[in-house]
Each structure stands twice: as structure tokens, then as C-alpha cells.
Design goal:
- There is one protein chain.
- Helices cover 35% and strands 31% of the residues.
- The chain is α+β, with helices and mostly antiparallel strands.
- A four-stranded antiparallel beta sheet has the order 1-2-4-3.
- The relative contact order is 0.27.
């Protein structure tokens, strides 16, 4: 599983999904207190910053909360 530091905190990639799906999952995870970082494959393009890129994006969560995020994914995140 991929790992990287984001602002000095170790994050793990939870999944890769089309942006609309990833945005919905991000909103639900953040509502449960899990910070999420989305990463497009084209970070330097305006479409990525503006949110108009609808292709696949990676959804990253803090390593310490990965298990909780995976459990929420399995139960469908109410």
C-alpha cells in the first residue's frame, strides 16, 4: 500500500476512484472525523485545482486512521 508524508503526517492511499465518487467518500469520511487528501494525476493543471477534473483521483487518509476508514468503507459509511 502506498505511503507518503503530507504536512509531516504519514498518509496511506485508501483507494483510487472517479472524482465524483471520491468527493462523496471524502465528505462522508470527514464527517466521521477522518481527514482526507485527494490527489489527481495532474496536480499542476488548473482543472485539478478547480475541481473540474472528473477522472480517477487517489484518496489518502492518515496512516493511524486507515483501519477506521477501511471499516467505514466496508459498512457503507452511513
Amino acid at each position: 500500500m502506498e505511503r507518503r508524508l503530507i504536512a509531516g503526517t504519514p498518509y496511506r492511499k485508501l483507494l483510487t476512484a472517479p472524482r465524483p465518487v471520491a468527493e462523496g467518500l471524502r465528505a462522508r469520511l470527514e464527517a466521521r472525523g477522518i481527514p482526507v487528501a485527494l490527489e489527481t494525476p495532474f496536480a499542476d493543471l488548473p482543472e485539478a485545482a478547480l475541481g473540474t477534473y472528473m477522472g480517477d483521483v487517489a484518496l489518502w487518509v492518515p496512516e493511524t486512521l486507515l483501519g477506521e476508514a477501511e471499516a467505514l468503507m466496508e459498512e457503507g459509511i452511513p
